[in-house]
Amino acid sequence: MQDQAQSREDFEARLRAIGAERYHDRHPFHARLHGGGCTPDEVRAWVINRWMYQSRIPMKDAAFMSRVEDPDLRRAWRKRIEDHDGGIAEGGGIRRWLALARAVGLDPDYVAGGKGIMPATRFAVDAYVRFVRDMPLLDAVAASLTELFAPKIHAQRIEGLLAHYDFADDTSLAYFRKRLTEAPGDVKFGLDYVLTHADTREKQDAAAAALVFKTDVLWAQLDALWHGYVEGNIPPGAWRPGEGMAT
Ligand SMILES: O=C(O)c1cc(C(=O)O)c2c(n1)C(=O)C(=O)c1cc(C(=O)O)[nH]c1-2
Fold first, then answer.
1. I need a surface site. Which of 124, 153, 164, 179 has the fewest CB within 10 A?
2. Which whole number is the average pLDDT over 76-81?
3. Does residue 57 have its Cβ closer than 6 Å to ligand 1?
4. Atom number of ligand 1 nearest to Cα 154
5. Where is the signal peptide (predicted)?
C-alpha cells in the first residue's frame, strides 16, 4: 500500500532539511570564496563557469513555460525570464553578471561566449535544463526550490566579497544584491505551488527527489571548480589563467 501523504508542514520541513544538508553553501569552495581565500584566478574561474548557470536559467524557464497550459501559471513564471534578460536599455541579471566579469578583469565577450567552461559544469547545467524540459511540471518547480536557500548565500557572498576583494563594489555585486529582492517572491510562489500540488506521497517523494537532484547540480559545479582551479587539474579546453582578459 502507498504511504500516506505527509502534512503540508511536515513536507515543507522535509524540503527545508534537504537544503540544510545538501545546499552548496556547505561546499568548501563557497567558504573559500566568501572567506577571502580565493586567488584572483580562482574567482575568475568561478565567474566564467557560473556563466553557464546564469545563461541557462532563462532558457530552462522558457522550456518550463513552453509546457504550461495554465495562463495564470505562465504569468507568474515569466517574471523569472524578465529578471534575467531585462529590457534592451537596462538589461537584467545576465548583464549584471557580465559587469562582475569585467570587474574581475575578464573580457565580458569572452565570458558570454561560453568558451572555457569546464565539461562537468556544462554537463551539470545541461542536465538541469533537460530535467525541467522533460520531467513533470511539479518536479520542475520543486527543482527551482533551491532558491529557498539562495538569499542567505547571496547575503554572505556580498558581505564576504566586499570585505576581502578589491573588485567588490556596488556595480560588480549588483547581481547578488538584486537577487535579494527578486528571489523571495519567486520562491514563495514555487513553494506554495509544490506544497499544494504534491498531494500524494508519491508526488511528494518525486518533488523531494527533484530538489535533491538540483542540489547535486549545484554541488557538482563547485566540485569541478575545486578540482580544476584549487587543485590545479584544469580539464582540456577549459579556461587557463591569462586567457580571456579584458584589454
Ligand atoms: O548564487 C547562488 O548560490 C544561486 C543559487 C541558485 C540556486 O539555488 O539554484 C540560484 C541563483 N543563485 C540565482 O542567482 C538564480 O537566479 C537562480 C535561479 C534558479 C532556478 O533554479 O530557477 N536558481 C538560482
1. 164
2. 97
3. yes
4. 1
5. none
